[in-house]
Amino acid sequence: MPLRPLTLGDFFDGAFGTVRRNPRATIGLAALVLAVAMVIPIVFSVVASTLFDPDRLLDGTGTSSSATDAIGLDVGLVGASLVAGLFTAAANIVIAGLVVPVVTRASLGEYISPGDAWRRARGSLLRLVGLSLLEGLVVALVFAVLVGLPVVVIFTAGGSGTGLGVGIALLFLGAVLAAVAALSIHVRWFQLAAPALVSERIGVLAAVRRASRLSRGQFWRILGLFLLLLLVTGVVQQVISLPFTIVGALFLAAFPDHGGFLGLLVSSNLANIVSGAIVTPFVGSVAVLQYLDQRFRKEGFDIELIEHVQRRDR
C-alpha cells in the first residue's frame, strides 16, 4: 500500500493485496471464526427440521393435517434464520477486529501470523461488541421514530380510506428517510470507529468521536466508497452462494421430508461461512484503509509511517 493519500484503486488493490498476501490471518481466521459461530445455528436447524417433520404436515390427500406442526415448522425456520443472522453478525465483529492489525502491519510491508493478529485484537473484542450494539441501538431508535409514527397513524385510521392512505404514504416516506438516516449515521460516526478503536486502543464513545473527527469534511468520499463496496461484495456473495443454493434446492427436491429441509438449512449456513470468510476480511480491510487514508490526509500520519520504515530499515 502506498504511504500517501489513497485513490479509489488503492483501496481495492490494498484490500485485495492484504487478503492475498495474508490468507491465513484473513481468510483462514475468518473461516475459523465463522465455522465456530455457525455450530449452534446448524444444530438449531437440525433440531427444528427434526421436531417438525414436513411429512407430518400433510395427510393422504395432500392437505394440512396439523396446524400446530405447520406453525412450528414456520417458527423453526424463521428462528434458524434469526439465530444464524445473530451469530454471523457477532462473528463479523470479531473478524473486523482481527483484520485491523493485519492491515496496519501490511501497510508497513510487514506480515503477522494468525496468532499475532489474535493477540493484538482480542483485548478490543468486547469494546467492538459494544460499538456494534451502540450503532444498532441508534439505528433502532431512528426506525422506531420514523417508521413507528406512521404505523400508529395507520392503526388510528381504523381502515378508513383517507387516513389509511395517508398512513401508508407516511410509512413509505418514513422507511426511506430511516434508511437514509441509518446510512448517514454509519458513515459519519461508525465506518471508521472500529479501526480507530483497535488501532488506538480507545473506548467505544472515544472511537465514535474519533471517527466523527476523521470523517468531517469527507462524508461523500467515504459514502461513495462504502456504497461501491456494498455493491461489489453483494455481487460476490451472490456468486459464491449460488452453488450452495442450488445444492440445497436439489436436496429439497430429492428428499421432500425433513432431510430435504435439513439439507437446505445446512447448505445455507455453509454458504454463509464460505462467502463470509472471503468477503468479510475484504470489507474490514477497506474500512481500515479508509481510516488510514483520513489520517494521512488530516494528520500527516503517512509521514510518520515513512519515517518509521526508514528507521526500521537502517
What would you say this structure looks like, in words?
With 314 residues, the chain is mainly alpha-helical. It has a domain at 8-123 and 218-312. It has 12 helices and no strands. α2 (24-37) runs antiparallel to α4, α3 (39-51) runs antiparallel to α4 and α4 (67-106) packs across α8 (193-200). The two termini are 21 Å apart. The model is unreliable at 56-65 (pLDDT under 50). This is Glycerophosphoryl diester phosphodiesterase membrane domain-containing protein. The chain crosses the membrane at residues 29-52, 82-104, 125-158, 164-185, 219-252, 272-292.
Number of strands: 0
Low-pLDDT stretches are 56-65
Which bin fits the share of residues in helices? over 70%
The major beta sheet can be summarized as:
none
Beta-strand residue fraction: under 5%
Taken from the alpha-carbon principal axes, the silhouette is: globular
What structural class do helix, strand and pairing data support?
mainly alpha
Rg, rounded, reads 23 Å
Termini distance? Answer: 21 Å
